[in-house]
């Protein structure tokens, strides 16, 4: 017998996530964890205070299955305010246990065994597992990294690769923008091409936009659902975790046309059923914060990115464009001559007392060579943590 005992065939090969593995390595070695993307500062008091007040009240009990009316209304208002899209809070908004559940429930609800799901890779690791659990087949479109330390260069893809990935069994396209792990923000011309392909093939679109407010250098996030013809074919997935530094609360949502949301709700109710009762009113309060909050978190995170990027470059680790998210990608070949990012990450705690994540795990086997030499660092950390990490990395190259 091969593989993991008792585990269903469709989940063989997934194992423990790289994030759990590298975080455990950080703990075991006392290293600074720049691998997993979670902030180490509390969220805004306007959000935390609402959660504290809700604990010990009836909010501790089961909330309504689709989410509290208060949060669903706040999500709809927030999307209209920032994206100009109108959704009915009662029928077109569903609260989920983080974006991860929204994505998994969407795959379970919409994908039949053998259906194909088109994704851009590198791809966040839960996507492949969610598609496999639904019995679907992943059809990856590779993103090509630009040369490291090249001003204005961005990740790209070949339009021919996108069109070739859409075969007769294609059911939907799963798009992550802003994109984890690359930090890419898909531009309008790229999204127009995505729209052309989706509409031409009659696909559904699931848009993971959890980093929508964490965009730098004036790049600007465009929701695919705002493009002509896509609103009625698109599920938009969002989350409060990244925006409000509350990743452990696991409060996410999806918005879309009522029939699509109803399908996802059918699957979701048999997963977690409901979640995060006291946190739902808190996230609702956060979504109503003034514009200055959202521009401020992006500006602060951009500053942290710049601190880490400067330190990485000084350590001989040239960085690849990061237009958004929590992450900077580096090319390790200058300090790891064989270009093995996984080996580099395993050795990094001893070499520098820092933990990062090998980016190669985010590509499928056929395109793994594109990311073998790349490593992802998280910069969503306190200034003193970043300063210490930069100091340790600089000593590595001394």
Structure description:
The chain has 398 residues and is α/β, with parallel strands linked by helices. The protein contains twelve helices and 13 strands. The chain has helices at residues 18-29, 45-54, 69-83, 98-110, 125-133, 159-165, 188-201, 258-268, 279-287, 291-314, 341-352, 383-396, and strands spanning 32-33, 93-96, 116-121, 137-142, 170-176, 204-208, 234-239, 252-255, 319-320, 327-331, 354-355, 357-358, 374-378. Strands 2-8-7-6-5-3-4 form a seven-stranded mixed beta sheet, with helices on both faces. Strands 9-10-13-12 form a four-stranded antiparallel beta sheet. Strands 1-11 form a two-stranded parallel sheet. The N and C termini lie far apart (49 Å). The mean pLDDT is 94.
